[in-house]
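Pinned message: reference record for SPT20 protein
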Amino acid sequence: PAVPRHTNRLINEKSPYLLQHAHNPVDWYPWGQEAFDKAKKENKLIFLSVGYSTCHWCHVMEEESFKNKEIGEIMNKNFVCIKVDREERPDVDKVYMTFVQATSGGGGWPMSVWLTPDLKPFAGGTYFPPEDGVHRIGFRTVLLRIAEQWKENKDALLENSQKILEALLHVSEIGVRGQESPPPSKEVMATCFQQLSNSYDEDYGGFSKSPKFPTPVNLNFLFTYWALHRTTPEGARALQMALHTLKMMANGGIHDHIGQGFHRYSTDQHWHVPHFEKMLYDQGQLAAMYSRAFQISGNEFLADVAQDILLYVSRDLSDQAGGFYSAEDADSYPTTASREKREGAFCVWEAEEIRALLPDPVEGATEGTTLGDVFMHHYGVKETGNVSPMKDPHQELKGKNVLIVQCSLELTATRFGLEPGQLGALLQEGRRRLAAARAQRPRPHLDTKMLTAWNGLMISGFAQAGAALAEQGYVSRAARAAAFLRRHLFDPASGRLLRSCYRGKDNTVEQSAVPIQGFLEDYVFVIQALLDLYEASLEQSWLEWALQLQHMQDKLFWDSKGFGYFSSEAGDPSLLLRLKGDQDGAEPMANSVTVTNLLRAACYSGHMEWVEKARQILAAFSERLQKIPITLPEMAQATAIFHHTLKQVVICGDPQGEDTKEMVRCVHSVFCPNKVLMLADGDSSGFLYRQLPFLASLERKDGKATAYLCSNFTCSLPVTSPQELRGML
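Predicted structure (C-alpha cells):
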C-alpha cells in the first residue's frame, strides 16, 4: 500500500527494529521520559515489548498481534506501550529479562513485560499467540486480565511489584562476600574443563544436544587450556574437542556454503538446520577462533573458513564509511512475487533447481554423471528435501534442502571416480553458479545499525586473522573500522564512547537526536579490539587510545564497594538495577573480557592498579568460578592468565626492517595466550618508551632485530633468530 493507515512516534527513530513497527495500529512510544510522564499522568500501566530486527518470533508476534486493529485498540486504551530495540538498549533489556527469567524460568525475545507507572515489573513472558490455544493463553486475554487487575486490585499489585524489585536487587548482587582473594586458577581450569568435557557431543562436536550454538567462549577456553597443558592427555582432549567442533560446524548447514558466514544457531544436534539470521558478533568471534585453530593446527581448511567469514562480512555487512552492520534476517520473500516472508527462503534449495543449474556432464567420471549429481551427493541434497519435519514446525522448509557436507572430498571423489583436486574445482563451480542464482532472489532485511561493542568484536576478528594468517589486508580492514569508531562513535571532548550510529538515507552515517552513551561492553570490546589491532599492526596510536578508554571505563563503571564493573553508568533514574552480568553466552560477558584487558593494559603501561582490579573481579566472581565455571569459560581462562603472569615479548628493531618483520611473523605464528607483543623501535620520545622506562635498557644485538622475553619488566637474554624465539614462545 502506498500510504500506511497508521503512523506512530517510532517513525522518528533511527533503529531499524523500531522503524519496522512505525506503522502498527499500536500507539508505540520509544523508551524515554515522554512515555513515563504519560503513564504517571494518566495512571496507566506500561506494556514494554523488547526485541531486535532479525528476530523470527518478534516478526511473528508483530504480524499476529501488533498489526491487529482490535488488539491495538485494547493496548492503546489500557496501557502506555513502549518498544525497545535490545541491541540499542542492552541495559533496559537486561533489567527486565532478569525479572522474566526469575519469574517464568525462561527468557527470550520478543520479551513482553507489564510495568507499574514507576517502571516496576509485575508480569511478563516472551511470545504470546494472539488468541487462547490448548496449551497457551492468548495475548488478548492477558491484556484484558491485567487491565482488569489494575482496576480492581491496584494496591495489591503495587505492593507486589515492590516486593519483586527487592527480590531482584538481592539476586543481582555480585560482589566480594568476605572472600578477598581470587579463586585458585588450577582448580577453576580443571573444573571448567571437566564440565565442558562432560557436556561435549563426541559425534558432532558442540556442548549440548539441541539447539546448538557456536559459543566461541567455550572454544577460546579450550585453546587456552591446551596451551597451558600441551603435554597432558587432558590438554590433547581439549584441543581435539575444539577442533572437531569447528570442523563439524564448518561442514554443517549452520555454515552458509553458498553465501559464506555463519547462521546464529542450529535447531538440531547435527549443525544441520539453522535459524538463518546472521549476527555480526558471531562472525567476529568465529573469525578469531578459526584463525586461532589454524595457528595451532596448521590445517588450511580452518584458515579457509576464517577467510570465508571475513569475505562475507566485507561484502555484506560493511558500510562504505568503514563500520560494520549488525545482522541479516532469517526471513525473506521466496520470490519477487511472494506475499509473505518465509524463514530461510534465501538460503534453501529444491533438488530440481540444482539439477537445472548444474546439468553439465563431468569428464572422467562414471558414465552419465552430471555436475548436479556430484554436487547433490556431496552436499546431502535429497529429491524430497533433507529437512526433517520435526525441525520444521511451520512447514516452511518442506521439499527444501539445507546444504551440509557429510562426507570427505576423498569419499565423494572415489564414489564418482574423480581425483580430489578435480572434485574441489567442480564443487567450487557449483557453488559459484548457485550463488549467482541466489543473487536473483529477494534479499533478507539487513539491520544497518552500527553498534560499538559488536564492531569491537569484528575488529578483533579481522586483526587476529590478519596476524595469524599473515594477511595484511585484514589488518588494514580492522584499522579502517577502528578509525570509523573514532570518527563516528567517540566524543573526543568528553573522552567517551557512544553506543550506536545508523546508515542514513543516502548512505551517510547518522546519529540519533539524543545519542545513546556507551555501555560497559562497548568499552571492553573496543579496548580488546585496539589491543589486538596494536599487536597485529604495531601502530602505537591504537594502544594509546585503548589505555585512555580503560581509564574512562574505570571512572564510569567501577564498583568500588563490591568490585567488578557495572554494565551501565550510574545516574539513570529509569534503570531500576545496575547489573554486572553473570555468564558468558553467545557474546562473552564484559567483566570476563575486561580481566584480560586489564592485565594486557598493565603490561603496556606499568599501571599496576589494573592488575589489582583484575584480581578484585576474579575475587568477586569467585564462588561462581569454583562451582559452575562452565557458565563463565571466558573468565575461567582469564584466571589462568592472571595466575601465570603475562610475558612481555619485546622486539627491538626497525619497524620497516625485514629482520624485524620476520621476528614479528614468528610471534604471530605461535598461539601463546599468556603473552603481549610490543615493538621497541628506538624512538625514546614515543608513547611506549614514555610508559615503560625499562625499554630504554634493551638494545639490538649486533645491529640485528632482537627479541627479549620479559616478565614483570625483567628480561631474559636477547635472541636474534626466529628459531630461538619460537622455542622460547
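Pinned by admin. Summary line: Residues 233-251 form the longest helix (19 residues).
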